[in-house]
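ENCODED BACKBONE
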Amino acid sequence: MELKLFGKKITIQNANTKTLPAISNDSAWQAYLRGKGYDITPMNALKVSAVIRCVDIIAKTMASMPLDIFRRKGDSREKADNHPLWPLLHILPNPHTTAYEFWHMYLCNLLLTPFAVARVFRDAAGRITALYNIPTAQCSKIYVNEENGERYFYVTDDFGHVEILRDGDYMYSPGMRLNNDIDTLDPMYIAANVLGLTMSLNGFAEDFFANGTNLGGWIELPEALSDTAYERFKESWYSSYTGVINQHKVAFLEEGVKFHEAGREASDSQLLESRQFAVTEICRIFGVPPHLVFDLTRATFSNIEQQNMEFVQNCLLPMAVRLEQTIYKDLLTERDRRDYFAKFNLNGLLRGDTATR
């Protein structure tokens, strides 16, 4: 399939894996072009094993950490398990979702999309009674009312109904920002180049093993064949020696037919090295040590513990602070902020290595 864009022809080789963005979506087209002809979306990115592992390891580790509400008491602090927010954040945000499930979904949206949003429900007195995740794909970007400075955005549900969420109706964690406090960068757009290359390598490997022959070379015939003989010989050859099931078979040739083997070790190793490097690149994007994605190429018994601590200090701890401050900003009242704050308990992950303990 060919598409003409900006005066250039773009060839879509595999319509099953390469889908076209909406023609009016300029940013999606830019990500598509940077993604080597792949529409880089969160769902497509999760088809890359390294991506789903990185996202899952961060989200599930954070979701499994205890999250408590504390009350300042002089120079110390005490758990405020009687605060109305404590059961919502620690146990059950809403009747249908556990705290683990809630934070896992919230983190997945934050890692794969420009921001994460949770719907806040309140009673008549303004007390928070429930929290529900909203998929980022159903939200518009955030807007600011120029008259009063209030922030709001539009949410479209599965049935097409649109709701406006205003300050107090949501918990909002923005992604990376550069120039102001509103527009956030799309991580899939930033990583489109790496993810597109990875998908291309995976597609090449899939086609190679599905259609390749490990004999690897060309056939020399002493004389030309008739069309019927050529078709019969080709059909016989492909059915006998191509595909995974026919690997490493010995070819029996007759009537002066010669098979010339072409070395393939170099191209095979380059493919494997490229796919290996792609895993490292994805780990670098998410800040996850490669051994947590089951890439043990450079892992040793002496450095894995240290890498685990670096993962906590450089990836999980900043994420914990990010969420704690979001809770402080969006869920605590002005009065509560004087005495209360939320805190993830990462102590179990920061105990030091075996030798230090």
Q: What stands out?
A: The CA atoms of residues 57 and 264 lie 37 Å apart.
